[in-house]
Design a protein that fits this description.
This is Lactate utilization protein B/C. Residues 43-208 form the LUD domain. The protein is α/β, with parallel strands linked by helices. The chain has helices at residues 3-14, 38-51, 64-74, 107-111, 164-170, and strands at residues 55-59, 79-82, 97-100, 115-118, 122-124, 129-132, 149-155, 160-161, 178-180, 185-187, 193-195, 202-208. It has 5 helices and 12 strands. Strand 10 (185-187) and strand 11 (193-195) form a beta hairpin.
Length: 209
């Protein structure tokens, strides 16, 4: 018998005398905190993203190609990872080598790529969190974790919610979810902050309105 089977067996025995009514979990907690307008929710997202040291930009659909091109140029990026379903026009003005999201890419190959551009599944204002679910315009989870520079485009206001419970309603637990709150960072016992440990050092979020 495996460890997994032993643990599940203990759980089943512990629940053997529990009726179905007792198994219902009460979810009467607040779904969001405060009564905000759509504009206020987007502003809160921008504030919390910046508080997490993400770089926040705003633009329209027509301005997006030139903005992405400028961000890649400022970064001196020579190559960019591109998810298969990313809108073709987003990189129309970027003079960079495009690298496809391939299943057989090695970690070393991904590490040599300068930047990655993705969309997102949802953005959470109260926590300043971007969630990717591996959709066609987001690609495999690892492409947003290995390259050192990540540009993530959030459609405003369609992809912005106030709080985590609202985000969970839009997400499938069967998909590979990546929750991103600012650039990758950690601290040692002396609280010295180190960025880029298990993800990009630089996260740029474009609020596309």
């Amino acid at each position: 018998m495996s460890s997994r089977e032993r643990i599940l067996g203990r759980v089943r025995r512990a629940l053997a005398d529990v009726t179905p009514d007792e198994q219902v979990i009460q979810r009467d907690y607040l779904r969001e905190h405060g009564d905000r307008t759509v504009e206020q929710t987007v502003e809160l997202l921008a504030e919390n993203l910046a508080d997490y040291r993400a770089l926040v930009h705003r633009c329209t659909e027509d301005e997006l190609p030139s903005l992405i091109a400028r961000l890649l140029t400022d970064r001196k990026a020579g190559s960019v990872l591109v998810p298969p379903g990313l809108a073709e026009g987003w990189l129309a003005e970027a003079d960079v080598t495009r690298v496809a999201d391939r299943a057989d890419s090695t970690p070393h190959e991904l590490d040599r790529v300068d930047s990655v551009v993705t969309a997102c599944a949802v953005a959470i204002a109260e926590t300043g969190t971007i969630v990717l679910d591996g959709g066609p315009d987001q690609g495999r989870r690892r492409i947003s974790l290995v390259p050192d520079h990540h540009i993530c485009v959030v459609r405003v206001p369609d992809q912005v919610v106030s709080a985590v419970p609202q985000a969970l309603e839009r997400l499938s637990p069967t998909r590979p979810l990546t929750w991103i709150s600012g650039p990758s960072a950690t601290s040692d016992i002396e609280l010295d902050r180190v960025e880029g440990v298990h993800g990009p050092r630089t996260l740029e979020v474009v609020l596309l309105g």
